[in-house]
Amino acid sequence: MNKIELHPGLVGDVQHVVQKVDTAAYLGSGTLDVLATPALVQWMEQAAVQAIAEHLPTGQTSVGGHIDVQHVAPTPVGLTVRVQAVLSEMVGRRLTFHIEAWDEDEQVGIATHDRFLVDEKAFITHAQAKIQGKARRGGS
Questions:
Q1: Domains located in the chain, CATH noted
Q2: Full-model pTM
Q3: Bridge partners, 84 (sequence order)
Q4: Which of 33, 59, 86, 101 has its CA 20 to 30 A from that of 134?
């Protein structure tokens, strides 16, 4: 395994144009055609993943563990949202990100997000073991 080259200050940026499939009405998290919080959260996690992607050794990845989000302003379909995640702290396998999101007019979200470094194979093996356990328990 290669040495991990992570350090605070790594930045990930993503941009998305809000589409109908990103709205609260479409996703069922509300009734309006504005950016849904679940879509915003997805983009926030995506920015965090991007910040560290090139700095992980082969066979390592990160998984989301916690996100504390404030969705502070609406964004209509057609506007672009830019999300920036900055790796702010590393403690053991836990990575903490400060994330901000802005549309073309104002800040629309802010979050603190924890991700955890994991070995890809071990993580998938653990997840797949649940399927085998379900079969042993007679679940469908």
A1: 11-137 (3.10.129.10)
A2: 0.91
A3: 13, 100
A4: 59
